[in-house]
Structure formats: structure tokens, C-alpha cells
Amino acid sequence: MQRDLVSFPLSPSVRVKLVSAGFQTAEELLEVKPSELSKEVGISKEEALETLQIIRRECLTNKTRYPGTAESGKKYTALELLEQEHTQNFIITFCSALDNILGGGIPLTKTTEICGAPGVGKTQLCMQLAIDVQIPECFGGVEGEAVFIDTEGSFMVDRVVDLANACIQHLQLIAGTQMAEEHPEALQDFTLENILSHIYYFRCHDYTELLAQVYLLPDFLSEHPKVRLVIVDGIAFPFRHDLDDLSLRTRLLNGLAQQLISLANNHRLAVGNIVQITKPEGIYSTISNHTSGISRCCCCY
């Protein structure tokens, strides 16, 4: 039974503590005693008992409702997966070199890791993508919305305004040269105010807030089905400064990555993760590393 804990009706505080302790799925808790869970997670015995009762009741209800079926949902053949890949949409950037490198743009249902040294423009690229995801379909866009999770405080709304105005002007030039009937109508809604109102910004100050926000995203996405892009600006930043336990940090980062992959697949959206690149100390060193450690480099997307 591989059911994610985020799908259970647990309180946000308990859910975050479970994830912080390394629990990801229901089967990891089915054989745990309330006293053991209380001690390991850091909640009261009453909360631990209530949590286990909810999980076991939900699992039993699901098993009764769908006897003999797997939790993992629909199965696909390799041919069906290949056909889905060929029909997959992309978030275009209007930068032909970048779109060509990415095979058409930022792909939906995938996570894209944006790496680089400080100051190279990773955040600006993501702010641009938060605008590009809203480009109307008649211009080749996906006409969606964006979620921007900021852990470093680097989101600059003034810069977003500049980028949005530039994008509007670019689309107006395209509309003036191609003279398509649907272009003027689409541009009526593609205004600065609408662009800014469809970028949902969340500021996370530590890894607990980041975990909570990401694991609560399924509920938010259900309420905002047009979201086609989730940006996490500085996915490893709060873990570097607030968590000294390397094994726990690795476990939490891997769980976070898996949750983002699940969001991309289940909600048909693109995920962009910003990761800093640093150079190890030493005058002979020429190798750059992810600041989140080698385990993040090996995490499957």
C-alpha cells in the first residue's frame, strides 16, 4: 500500500512533523505503536493515537471500497507513455536558443533543475517563466498560472513588472505582423494586472515552512486547476542553514523531490527547482558542486 501521507486528512502540523521524521507513505506507519510514533515524531501520545487511527481507518475504507485493486492507480503501456511524451506541451520562453536546447521549452509533467553560480540569472529566468506560462494558446503558450515558492527572498516584483511589460509588447508585435483574428482578443486579457494576479507567491523562511507548503500544494492546486508551473527558488537553501543532520537532510530533500515529481505528474504541470552551484575550497579545484550535496545530483526526476 503505497499511499502518500499528504493524501490523508491529518492536521498540517502533524503532517509536517511526520515528513520531517522521514515518514512518506502509509505503510511505514501501519505497524508503529502510538508510543513509538509519539517519541520519534515529537507529538503527544493522544495525537499519535489519533493519527494512527485516521491512517488505519482510511486504509481500511479504501481497501473495502476497491477490493483487489492497487493503490498506484491506472497502469500504462510503454507505447502509451511514448505517445504522451510526443503530445506533451511546453512552456515557451521566446528565446529560441533556450527553447531549442530544452526541446521546445520547459516541459509539463517534468521537473527541471536550474543550476548555476550566484548572480547568473536563475531567479530572473524563473520570474520570466512565471510570466511565460500565462502566454495565450493562440501564441503557442499553455495559458496557465504559476506558483512561486521563495526561500531566499530574491523575488523582486518590480523586475516581474518589467518582464511582464516586455512580454506584452512582444506579443503585440507578433499580433501586428501575423494578423490572426484570435490575437487581439487574447491580448485583451493578457494585461499586467492579470499577469501579476495569476502568480501565487509563497515566502518560506525555514525548511519546516518549505516542507509544509510543498506538502499542502495538492489542496491548493485542486482549488487552482489552471496552475501549470511551480517554481521553488532555492530548494536546498533552508536545509543548508537550519539542519545539521546530514542523513535527515538527505532524507527530507529526497522526499521533497519525490513530492514535486508527483505534483508534476498528477497535475500536468512543470516544476522548476533552483539549485546553487559552488566551488570547493582549494586553489587546484575546478569542479563545481550542487550546494545540496552529491545525493541531490543522483535524485531521479
Automatic annotation (TrEMBL):
It comes from the Eukaryota. It holds the Pfam family Rad51. Residues 87-277 form the RecA family profile domain. The keyword DNA damage applies. This is DNA repair protein RAD51 homolog 3. Gene3D superfamilies: P-loop containing nucleotide triphosphate hydrolases. Keywords: ATP-binding, DNA damage, DNA repair, Nucleotide-binding, Nucleus. PANTHER family: DNA REPAIR PROTEIN RAD51 HOMOLOG 3, DNA REPAIR PROTEIN RAD51 HOMOLOG 3 RAD51C. The keyword Flavoprotein does not apply. InterPro entries: DNA_recomb/repair_RecA-like, DNA_repair_Rad51/TF_NusA_a-hlx, HR_Repair_Mediator, P-loop_NTPase, Rad51_C, RecA_ATP-bd. Signal peptide: none annotated. GO terms for cellular component: Rad51B-Rad51C-Rad51D-XRCC2 complex; Rad51C-XRCC3 complex; replication fork. GO terms for molecular function: ATP binding; ATP-dependent DNA damage sensor activity; crossover junction DNA endonuclease activity; four-way junction DNA binding. GO terms for biological process: meiotic DNA recombinase assembly; reciprocal meiotic recombination. It is found in: Nucleus. SUPFAM superfamilies: P-loop containing nucleoside triphosphate hydrolases, Rad51 N-terminal domain-like. It comes from Camelus ferus (Wild bactrian camel).
